[in-house]
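WARN no homologs supplied; continuing
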Amino acid sequence: VQLQASGGGLVQAGDSLRLFCAASGRTFSSYTVGWFRQAPGKEREFVAAITWSSGSTNFADSVKGRFTISRDNAQNTVYLQMNSLKPEDTAVYYCAAGTIRLPFRDKGRYAYWGQGTLVTVSS
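OK structure emitted
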């Protein structure tokens, strides 16, 4: 499956942004899709994940209550809605998919990765 992440941009603190992860080649059925981010000089970290079958979700503590993740079966797309953005959310955001049944935080469980989309939050 090929993944295409989009929707990044430059926003101010407190603003909202919606990221998109579209799949091609195969549908997302039976996959779990996750979002990860990598800030300059830091390791790639988990942000959120959703299972395609049941819609179970998992969020990093740093984004709980601010970010939501959802999926659209018809569009074969996963969305990451980011609200109340903070400067520390600035990073390149990546979507990834894995044939796993739970929304794991471990990036090693995700076999397929899209290119990143840059999110910059100014103070």
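The mean pLDDT is 94.
OK
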